[in-house]
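Re: your question from the hallway

Yes, I did run it. Sequences:
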Amino acid sequence: MNTGAKYKTKQRDVLVEYFKKYPGKHITAGEVCEHCKKQGEHIGQSTIYRQLESLVDEGIINKYIIDGKTSACFEYAGEHDENSSEVCFHCKCEKCGKLIHMHCDELSAIGRHLYQKHGFELNPMRTVFYGVCEDCQK
Amino acid sequence: MNTGAKYKTKQRDVLVEYFKKYPGKHITAGEVCEHCKKQGEHIGQSTIYRQLESLVDEGIINKYIIDGKTSACFEYAGEHDENSSEVCFHCKCEKCGKLIHMHCDELSAIGRHLYQKHGFELNPMRTVFYGVCEDCQK
DNA sequence: CTAAGTGCAAAATGTTTGCATACTT
DNA sequence: AAGTATGCAAACATTTTGCACTTAG
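Structure:
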């Protein structure tokens, strides 16, 4: 946790724009660094890590830690569309490493179940289902 | 992935016994190291990491990567009781960090749903639900 | 005897921190 | 001016690797 970014800086904008440009894509801190270098925007890695932390705190991006990857991933959280109950779930294949984005009402239902029966308020943005994908089951 | 342990060694036994002794407990590689030192059983850390990998491959222990912790956790997989449909799910509180073990048929049902409707074969042993626990919702 | 496992130390990652400087407001 | 952010390099923590040596089968 930190105090939260308060100043609008060039570095922060670059990061936010990058995430906005690829909604649904999982991006590591290292990939952010590379992206910046390619853009000719040299941003120190400590700045990147600190900004990522801030952006997570502010709910602008989400952080995922996925087995098989050695580093954490971040993803644009999208516009907070409160009307839509469309929640996106993530399934990660343990064999090929593929990450599947899934929209499913039945899955949304488990969030309600967990809350009503177990008092646990699920955060679907952060939860990753592990298993084996269709292609790898052959 | 590795070729799988084939030899029965003292080091391997020590690790397996340790995990068996604490079913349901999440143990990091570092904790395994410490445990061995306390026992007077000096086991090199590379051996520990390599054995942990083997044990995961063999399904004797499961590996979890949980946000907030900097290192991976391992847990005894338990006897493979095929008769029982009792599967254990993990819920991790994002606020207090508590890890809740949950047995629930409804949750087991989502495994079937994912398989039938989405062709995804869920591995519940590896999946962690993130959210906020009852205590932290006050 | 051979394949597999071990242990050490070194290297490779990924992430965090201290501190002087620069930028926002 | 005051508070915050940046960037560098160094520090850290965890995990992996190379290699000579030991052990199980």
